[in-house]
Amino acid sequence: MFIYIWQQLFSDVFYFLRCNFAVRVRSLVIVLLSYFYFGFFSLYFVCIFKYSMANPKILVCIDFDKTLIDCNTDVEIKSLLDGKEVPEEIESLSKITKGWTAYMRELFIFMHKNNVSKDDYIRCLTQLPLVPGMQELLNQMHESGDCEIIILSDANSFFVQSILRHNQLNETISKVFTNPAEFDKDGCLQIREFQNQTSCKRCPPNLCKGAVLVTYIAKRMLEGVQFCRTLYIGDGHNDVCAALHLGINDYVFARAGYRLLRCLEKMPAKNVKATIVPWETVKNIRDVLLSS
User: Fold this and answer.
1) Per-residue pLDDT band at 32 (split at 50, 70, 90)
2) 82 an active-site residue?
3) Which residues of the sequence carry a binding annotation for substrate (predicted)?
4) β-bridge partners, 156
5) b vs e for 101-117, b when ≥16 Cβ sit within 10 Å of the residue's Cβ?
6) Percent of the chain with pLDDT over 70
7) Catalytic status, residue 65
8) CA-CA-CA-CA torsion for 203, 209, 212, 218, nearest 10 degrees?
9) What pTM does this model have?
């Protein structure tokens, strides 16, 4: 029995040494994490180094506002106030560095006081346009069976899920990481921070997209799913951290004319390992995917 185990172990190690560098690094990370939590023997029987899993997938990470949907939902819903001005003490919160979630919390309370209902939100959200062609692209990726698609967004779960359901994308998206939001018994939309982190100074306290991305990849590897490549599609400054966590085999599709692309272009080339692809239309993304 033990002879078989060691033979299998050396076979797996030999396979590991033949893998490309990115796969080796990811494998070693998961090995170390697993060893810390489970110990060597649990590691071997549960993980078997995870790098040797067949049929690796492509992980597609996509932002929500101005990437999946062609606008900023947090701004668009203010049209439900029918021109009524939001008080300056609330608007000032949006200008505070990293205070956007607190701003939205107070805005939702103000909108509730002005009789904006759940149905009003849904009516507004379902009229907002998606980026042309993005729905078709995501559906094709999902139907291929080669891709797993997740959303990383600083919006909120009610907005995201409402739009996904309306556009029949809720089965296409495997996981949504965003600020939780639900209506209380009085009918007021209440938003909470996704997390409270202080380790990443590049990201707001409520959501570090880079940490979420790395954690998700590690979790899926423990579950038996390996990603051979990550595609990140975004537009804003809060997508920079996730983009910097990508490897040399990965792609970051940064929307032309927006902050993500401007930030990445200003950085030293050594800081950005992934291939940067500016996009104006979904065709720009599709062309790269077809040629890679």
Assistant:
1) low
2) no
3) 74, 154
4) 179
5) bbbbbbbbebbbeeebe
6) 81
7) yes
8) -120
9) 0.82
Q: Please tell me whether 82 is known to bind a ligand.
A: no
What was the pLDDT predicted at 35?
46
Mark 129-144 as b/e (b = at least 16 C-beta within 10 Å): ebbeebbebbbebbee
Average pLDDT over the chain reads: 86
Q: What is d(CA 184, CA 182) in angstroms, rounded to the nearest whole number?
A: 7
d(CA 292, CA 287): 9
Which of 12, 65, 146, 287 does the annotation list as catalytic? 65
- Condensed to tens digits (0 to 9), the pLDDT of residues 192-235 reads 999 999 999 999 999 999 999 999 999 999 999 999 999 999 99
| 63 marked as binding residue | yes
Is the per-residue pLDDT at 24 higher than 60? Answer: no
Is 239 marked as binding a ligand? no
Which residues are within 8 A (CB) of 118 and not within 5 positions of it... i.e. 6 or more apart? 183, 187, 189
From 63, 186, 239, 250, active-site residue: 63
Residue 235 annotated in ligand binding? yes
Which residue type occupies 269?
A: A
Residue 249, judged by CB atoms within 10 A of its CB (0-12, 13-18, 19+), counts as middle
Q: Which amino acid is at 81?
A: L
- H or E stretch covering 233: strand 227-234
Residues 80 and 116: their CA atoms lie apart, in Å, by 7
pLDDT of residue 16: 45
DSSP conformational letter for 226: -
Kindly tell me the burial class for residue 242, based on how many C-beta atoms sit within 10 Å of its own C-beta (0-12, 13-18, 19 or more): buried
Measured in whole angstroms, how far is the alpha carbon of residue 214 from the centre of its chain? 10
Helices (H) and strands (E) counted in the chain, each on its own, are: 13, 8
Helix (H, G, I), strand (E, B) or coil at 277: strand
